[in-house]
Design the sequence.
């Protein structure tokens, strides 16, 4: 599915359309949440395009079988290399990722890199996975959302696409806000507050009401560092190492 342009949406006119092609056994799961809010508006306006490929369309028998039992025995089924390769080779696919718990964990730096691609293909696995040979033969990268297991790659693909789409020019109303988000500077985001000023006896920190932008910036930086150090010591260690390297 490719959305038609809408000139009323705030779009960077010169930016190419970012296209993602999703190979799945359940194409009806898309666009799903991606059809709503910012991602949905951007899809309708033509800032990005979504294509779905039903892997079963490339099955080689009347039953539209896409899987078979694993060589060597064991439970479950494995998606066949010949069927998946036919789906992959049917159209121009660009950079291709397989959503898999074996891959490196997706982070914001990798998301920024994917946003710079003009075309991306995502493979949503099912069952026990896919035949290893198609990964090797087609140079497919693997990427994971974390150390947990889903019933299929579709929810992971939706999360990855959403993370990329919000970085595309014209999707976020004020792009400068992206710079303050978690992970952009290697830190978690500082706490946020809004009205009412006092809620259940809890007051908004006075510095945020001061109007002094320098003090507010310093407070936010300090809070971001405190949160990262306590809640994500792995991120803090990486941030501290990078900061030390920059000061040499």
Sequence:
């Amino acid at each position: 599915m490719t959305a038609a342009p809408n000139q009323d949406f705030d779009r960077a006119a010169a930016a190419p359309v970012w296209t993602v092609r999703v190979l799945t056994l359940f194409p009806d799961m898309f666009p799903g949440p991606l059809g709503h809010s910012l991602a949905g508006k951007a899809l309708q306006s033509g800032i990005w395009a979504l294509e779905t490929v039903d892997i079963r369309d490339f099955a080689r028998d009347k039953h539209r079988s896409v899987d078979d039992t694993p060589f060597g025995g064991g439970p479950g089924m494995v998606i066949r290399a010949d069927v998946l390769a036919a789906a992959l080779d049917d159209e121009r696919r660009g950079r291709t990722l397989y959503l898999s718990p074996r891959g490196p964990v997706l982070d914001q730096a990798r998301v920024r890199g994917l946003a710079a691609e003009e075309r991306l293909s995502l493979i949503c696995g099912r069952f026990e996975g896919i035949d290893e040979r198609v990964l090797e033969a087609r140079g497919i990268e693997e990427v994971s959302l974390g150390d947990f297991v889903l019933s299929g790659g579709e929810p992971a693909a939706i999360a990855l696409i959403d993370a990329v789409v919000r970085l595309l020019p014209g999707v976020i109303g004020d792009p400068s806000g992206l710079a303050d988000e978690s992970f952009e500077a290697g830190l978690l985001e500082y706490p946020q507050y809004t009205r009412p000023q006092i809620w259940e006896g809890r007051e908004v920190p006075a510095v945020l009401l001061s109007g002094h932008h320098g003090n507010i910036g310093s407070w936010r930086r300090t809070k971001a560092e405190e949160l990262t150090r306590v809640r994500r010591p792995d991120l803090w260690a990486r941030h501290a190492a990078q900061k030390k390297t920059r000061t040499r």
In short: Helices lie at 37-45, 81-89, 108-115, 132-137, 154-165, 213-231, 233-246.
